[in-house]
Fold each of these.
Amino acid sequence: MLKDWTASERPTPEQMDESLEQLRAKLTDRHVALGEKKLPVLIIFEGWGAAGKGSVLGKIIKNIDPRFFKVATMSVKTQEEERKPFLYRYFVKIPAAGKYMFLDGSYMDEVTTEFLHGDIDEEGFRKRMISIRQFERQLTDNGYLVLKFFFHIGKKEQKRRYEKLLEDKNTRWRVSENDLWQNEHYDKCLNVYDAYLRETNQSQAPWYIIDADNVKWAQQQILEIMVNGIDTALSNGALAVPILQNLFPLRKTVKLSEISLDGKSISDEEYDQELSKLQKKLSKLHNELYRKKIPVIIAYEGWDAAGKGGNIKRIVGALDPRGYEVHPIASPLPNEKARHYLWRFWNRLPKTGHIAIFDRTWYGRVMVERIEGFCSENDWQRAYNEINEFERDLTDWGAVVVKFFVHIDKDVQLERFNERMNTPAKRWKITEEDWRNREKWDIYEQAIDEMLAKTNTINAPWYVLESNDKKYARIKALKIIIKEIEKKI
Amino acid sequence: MLKDWTASERPTPEQMDESLEQLRAKLTDRHVALGEKKLPVLIIFEGWGAAGKGSVLGKIIKNIDPRFFKVATMSVKTQEEERKPFLYRYFVKIPAAGKYMFLDGSYMDEVTTEFLHGDIDEEGFRKRMISIRQFERQLTDNGYLVLKFFFHIGKKEQKRRYEKLLEDKNTRWRVSENDLWQNEHYDKCLNVYDAYLRETNQSQAPWYIIDADNVKWAQQQILEIMVNGIDTALSNGALAVPILQNLFPLRKTVKLSEISLDGKSISDEEYDQELSKLQKKLSKLHNELYRKKIPVIIAYEGWDAAGKGGNIKRIVGALDPRGYEVHPIASPLPNEKARHYLWRFWNRLPKTGHIAIFDRTWYGRVMVERIEGFCSENDWQRAYNEINEFERDLTDWGAVVVKFFVHIDKDVQLERFNERMNTPAKRWKITEEDWRNREKWDIYEQAIDEMLAKTNTINAPWYVLESNDKKYARIKALKIIIKEIEKKI
């Protein structure tokens, strides 16, 4: 793309001043419409060193009320970020509905730099391209506007700018070793940037190359594309998008109704023995995980009163409290609801070597949100693939991902509900909502069967825990976690 | 994609029968909604030889009323098609609003076969990928639903099927040399197909890989995706899509107001001499074009009464009538209006070695359609890039593309209008509409300036013909045509 590109003709300074004034006025009140239509806007600034990204960005944001935008400079990774998946630091920064987020530098910079310096190879580069395309598609499919600018200047112009910065001792610090390396290897960089732009130039999130020889002109180009892009997105509102085919290898799944719950029990004596033995084993593995920096994600879904809480208690009973976190997942908070539904889970990912346990998960999208109509049919239909992509990002990062569905039958649920009602100490655990959900057992069962079938991937498999006997389920969970961790160690 | 893919689990025969029945019922009445929403649906069947594309297609269409679909088998090119641009035979077959078109084999088959047999190289393959992505994006951007299916079977299964066909003398003819070649070179083919699927897998027109081991199951997969895709498209209606940046090298353009019309004249004597000389030259070139199979496309736009007709007359005066065609372009007919706006121009492309002259053109999109509101703002804004892509396809094919804007000033137009009014023999040439357009001179001028600036590409340049003196304009046109043809010979 960069290679095919030629700068369009620049207007005269007077024309520029006139257009700039008009464009600024247009942008100034767009935040009202963004708010009304709940449109989140992610704007990415990329380009050559010394191309003027920073100064143009500074001028653009002057036209927006500070309550409606944030700027993130994505230069060096924090230690915390180093221990998270590649996309983590970008995903957690996505804007809320009605707001702008400007990224000064992004994953393009990260990936192309790594590739140019040999830190990742062709295959690594290719994998990143897939993740990035998925990320941007997930955003636009979920109603985000994504605008991507590449600031372009020639080799000579770049050199001239560096020399000018180096001359003055007040600006010298702005030129890094890497900047000079880029200018020396301009053509090599151009090839890699060109490949990157081509690979990530998607219709719904296209690249715009900015002629950055002149700051005012760069500003005008960006304002024009922003106003245009925002108006296009505003005029569309919520869209249905094609449901992509699953391309993830799946494991065979059986329906809940085909799973026998009878006979899946364990004696108290055996339980105590096994529990103690398995917890010791898991405890050892936890140390090993920590040393080898392997992250573990354990996801729990299941019927109300199936025994998730007690099950989780037996897992964490084996763990060093400094190395794990349990995340109970309730309805999303307003700031969570205003973003992509996976955002709050990206935010809760463990560091490498740590364990995160989710008590209810991102699968809410295809269960409660589906059934209660909290999202559109297109949203939850699309979510199976989005979730498989999310989990693939996790396992590509090196994580162990284990997913449990804690299963009981309808009679056992009723018994447990009644027991909770009749036991004052447990009455807080039962709500009106639990009774209402119980009435929807059959439609939940159908949704769960579909979920298990469509997301039972080889890399992040589902396990059904038969939990009419809670103790049986606990032992089974421990065994599976141990087995899955051992596979990766 | 093919390599990552694993077949999803097949339902039992009873489950299939039940789903098939439901899906068929759903599809049966979808054409009513397609008609109401004017949705055109292009469905592409690709896949391995003997994978059962034909028989499944036969079963699918049984569920649709024959008035609402067409099937085209895209196997061998006709001689006519051999002499048209690569995409021609596909573009002319796109469905009308509210209708289905099924392509049994498509450009995928064409391109991958050419590449596998060394008829095109890596660069040729890459160029085709760009054209194909543009084509599909142009369709979906203009409101088409595009569904693409790849029928997948393994090497052994394919061999088994070929052997079975060969055993029976009634079916033997169905196995071609190329089919057997494909089976022998299955892995090589797989690599190329995989690359193709990856390169053309766009969010708005994704690939669906069909597990084709079983005909009924293949049917079910396709029906499900069709119903789903149609419902998604129906729920959206007309969308605004992002305006892509121009990536075509442009020539410098001046505004109409900066073009001097004074002094651009020629004496009658000089005119006669030049005309005769240039027409002879063009006539010779026409023969050469014919022998060298170079196609020529000459596009005329201009003000009413600017003298387009007389200008064209002087061009064709030099040409062998068997080797050219003039296409006067009026408002689109209903069957043209029901399709992509470029369709009627694709349909009128010359054969190699022939000349096509367009009296008004595809630029109507960004002039009259823009100004009269016959299309949305998003439509005409997007059209500059679509038109540049269209013309690039033409010049990549080897065509000479020359575009004229025949320019006069407002006073000269008034004189000519009055002359037409006062001359009984010419009165038919002037209509109420001409007077109405004249009132919109200024907004037309603005649209024309924008058009000239945004589509004055290096490969298909614009020339303004100063036509206050019609004779001057005729001589200039002839000279330019000759110069542009000589460049390619």
Note: The mean pLDDT of chain A is 94.
Amino acid sequence: MMAVNFEVFKDFCAVDGIELGITQAGVRYQNRDDMVLIQLAETAVTAGVFTLNAFCAAPVTICKDHLAKTNPRYLLINTGNANAGTGPDGYQNAIDSCKLVAQTTGCSAEQVLPFSTGVIGEPLDMTAFERGIPAAFSDLSRDNWERAASGIMTTDTLPKGFSTQCEISGVMTTITGISKGAGMIMPNMATMLGFIATDASVDKSVLQTWCKQLADASFNRITIDGDTSTNDSCMLIATGKSPLVISDADSAEAQQLFSELKNAFQVLAQAIVRDGEGATKFVTVEVSTAASHKEALDVAYTVAHSPLVKTALFASDANWGRILAAIGRSGVENFDLEKVQIFLDDVQIVENGGRCVSYTEEAGSAIFAKSEFAIRIQLGRGDIEETLWTTDLSHEYVSINADYRS
Amino acid sequence: MMAVNFEVFKDFCAVDGIELGITQAGVRYQNRDDMVLIQLAETAVTAGVFTLNAFCAAPVTICKDHLAKTNPRYLLINTGNANAGTGPDGYQNAIDSCKLVAQTTGCSAEQVLPFSTGVIGEPLDMTAFERGIPAAFSDLSRDNWERAASGIMTTDTLPKGFSTQCEISGVMTTITGISKGAGMIMPNMATMLGFIATDASVDKSVLQTWCKQLADASFNRITIDGDTSTNDSCMLIATGKSPLVISDADSAEAQQLFSELKNAFQVLAQAIVRDGEGATKFVTVEVSTAASHKEALDVAYTVAHSPLVKTALFASDANWGRILAAIGRSGVENFDLEKVQIFLDDVQIVENGGRCVSYTEEAGSAIFAKSEFAIRIQLGRGDIEETLWTTDLSHEYVSINADYRS
């Protein structure tokens, strides 16, 4: 299995106010990093967005609760066990893991945010946490981002990270983040996670608004198989260690920082697609001239989730009838078929409800042969645009998801 | 590829008032039956339900138009070309095919309903219709149901039919039907079709209401890959040749006929699933104690369409976390997780938001090893129930849909 046009990021910049510790706690497997502790400065402000799955995991519930009450000082991430579908015991175990961090570090349990990813439905082995948390704490270092990117992996084939420095209002500002995720859920292996930090100081309400907006433009616009995990979480941290202070979201420096963060979020989200289960293609689905965001997304997701479109992508087969049929069943009412136009990159395939007169099978096949291209759909109903990123459906996807436990 | 627990139906009873003719018209391929003409008695009443895909094919549009204006005398079905995504020329070709039937048979063009299934986006070869229609007409016979079942196949591996006779109010009544469909769309090969006839006399408005209700309990409750075709059509014909007259849908004889028709519709619909692309499992998804039909269907379809649930079915892996996660992302609001219960046949896997205490991996695996079983989900919110039927996602599915044109 190979990721699509994926280069492992190496040049991490430390973020003032953040230290990371990694250890082999043995949550499920031996001899692999499976626990990461992230320490935040007292000045840090944290925002988060979480899975909308009704069966959200115990740590997600605890995380949201603690985030509402405190400015967190520690984030604890374990792989190997999602602590999902575990009932009341699962909640107690998530709380106990926070207490263990509190005992080790001297903060309160509510200042700890827990994140779990891995098997669903198995009880957490708390002895691994008793072992791992002190070990991760003693490993804390500002230069551990690269190891942390590997430490949060489950079935990812490659670690995912991004880092940049840019001057904003004369202040050199750092943005660094890591993410994980391959399918939305692997054979009981769950979860998309993203942790992105900047050393700027950002007002808490601005940061929370941004986190939602940024996730909606990145992690909430990727889909591999449409299966939302029970544990998905994306955290945005502003450590407040640089002189750059953002309190007004409309200021020029706020907009510049937002733009840089958006790029970081999108790189980290797209890395999950590029490393998607069995992925051989990285495909952008762009829907424009829609009447609403909902209909733009309905069309885009229907195309991106269609098994027939996805197998055609895998086959490099410019089977445009499947794209047409997927758009048609997306639930948008009162379509004017005459106005719908479909392009592969810049090659138009559909106009006036049928095949474009200028289209040739050769031109379509040349695009489908590429490892990375865009399906661009114009609805001719308004001026709204939405974009998402997806992969193909390959034999490898079936193998990964069917053969894992057997 | 083998269909799941599928026995080819052989004992067709003719329906008074219906004759069928089959021919090799050469619409796309040579040396295979690809055109079926069905002649209805003047006394026959016809009802239909059609795809909701906004990009519905030209023959579907013409079919709906003609059905609204007349009591049809002929149904013309061709395989090899769906006449979908063909723009204005497609409409003209569909109308012209009706005119050819009218010329051959002496009816009016509006008394002909056209049905097409096959490649999307290619113009119809009208010379095949000029050749085929007279040949099919001269082949008309009341005993041709079995050949017609084969004549409407595209990528189906087996012909699908059902026939029964039952006494209703002292009148021996015949119900006979055929259907086709394997994926919702194969590599440009489209369409579910169903044609079911009885010799009873049924009031037209009752028949139309029934056709919708029956399709909703059968063809609209099957899903292989979630891709609704541009050409799906289901027709219910009452020839009025037997002394049984149904004008009041609430009468005892009406309810008995409805019940017999429902069985026929479900057998024909389930046959499509059993012969689904790459299917190795036939799975019933039953959602009960829901607050509404919409939420019951949302849950059932989310589970049935989840690639992770489907690959687990293929692997015979009792990976119940995937079922749980699919239910959780189905969009039902204010779930009380404590009340959700999940069973595999009679083996309970989930209670109180976690794994059932009595559940064992062995018990779950024993069910998943079966070729046919039910995933039963109780939501604990009301008294509504919905059932649908689906298959697994196998390597064969990817091969069929990815390798066909390559």
Note: Residues 185-190 of chain B have pLDDT under 50 and may be disordered.
